[in-house]
Amino acid sequence: MTDSPFQPPETFMRLPAGPPGPGCRAAILGVPFDCGTHPFRVGARQGPAHVRQQSGLIRRYHPSLADVDVPALLGAVDCGDVALTPGRLDAAFPRIEAAAGTILDAGAVPIGIGGDGSVSLPLMRAAGRRHQGLVALHIDAHTDAYPYTPEDRYTAATQFTHAAEEGAIDATASWHVGIRGFTYTAGVLPRAHGLGFRVVTAEDLLRRGFAQAMAEFRDSVAGRPVYLCWDMDVFDPSVAPGVCTPTWGGLSAREGIELIRTLTGLNIVAMDFNTVSPPQDVNDMAAHLCAHMMMEAMVLLARQYGLVE
């Protein structure tokens, strides 16, 4: 508590607000954007504010995982939101890429808060321009590597199609993990394979086990720079109801936490957590869980930098 009579801006876990400076290794970046074209659920543009609000419930110390102040060790800051108009894609995407690029150029890892899944494309573009050979680890119920038409090129289901075609990531070394459920079109998995991606369905993941599957990914990328994209609909709607495209049969909260902890040892250079949609978020469950997963991700970064054993 300070002597100031003014409440500071609401930031993720009350991190310092502002751009990354010397010694900063992680920076939160809100991306309040959705395409506004979802047939049933529009609202992920409100996700960053919602997740920040619920992050007040997250504590900084974990007695058995990291009994230290991880955000402080990382020198983490909250840069605020990208200045954009939701739904105006042509203007928003360059702004998103530029904001992420500023963080990367400062030597910090951007941790994006979406926003719908489309925001991953400009974030990956920024990371790919600065990290040669970037690969993606995409944790999601859907591949988001769907075909597009000239009239509807950019959606929340085509970002990985564009990332592969543009070379923002090396699709041949990138994985989609947790894929499940019904789709609007046939041929989704062959389409992803045709772009070069490896697909691990939810059934495969649960049968093989998280540690074994992620150890194979870690061995396959062998220290290459990784973009971690975590779509909150990989969780079951029973624990994350407020997402853009809820799909039954997903991970429990416990399983999702276990999965992200198996990512220790990766060279993560950028990441995002997306698709929290506040208007549908019963009891703020998806936002609270998203904030927890972001803290888990910061523990991963602290281990990556040798700040936590």
Strand order of the largest sheet: 2-1-3-8-7-4-5-6
Number of helical stretches of at least 4 residues: 10
Outline the biggest β-sheet: 8 strands, parallel
The geometry reads as globular
Unreliable spans are none
What is the percent of helical residues?
25-40%
Supply the number of structural domains. Answer: 1
CATH arch. level architecture: 3-Layer(aba) Sandwich
Q: Write the element-wise H/E pattern from the N-terminal end onward.
A: EHHEHEHEHEHEHHEHEH
Question: Kindly, what is the distance between the CA atoms of the first and last residues, rounded to a whole number of angstroms?
Answer: 31 Å
The fraction of residues in strands falls at 5-15%
Average pLDDT reading:
96
Classify the secondary structure makeup into a structural class.
alpha/beta
Q: How is the CATH topology named?
A: Arginase, Chain A
Radius of gyration, whole Å: 18 Å
The CATH class designation is: Alpha Beta
Number of strands: 8
Going by CATH, the homologous superfamily would be Ureohydrolase domain
What's the structural blueprint in terms of helices and strands?
Layout: E1 26-31, H1 47-54, H2 70-74, E2 77-81, H3 89-105, E3 109-114, H4 120-130, E4 135-139, H5 159-166, E5 175-179, H6 188-195, E6 198-201, H7 202-208, H8 210-221, E7 225-231, H9 253-261, E8 267-274, H10 285-304
Parallel strand pairs: 1-2, 1-3, 3-8, 4-5, 4-7, 5-6, 7-8
Helix pairs in contact: 1-10, 3-4, 4-5, 9-10
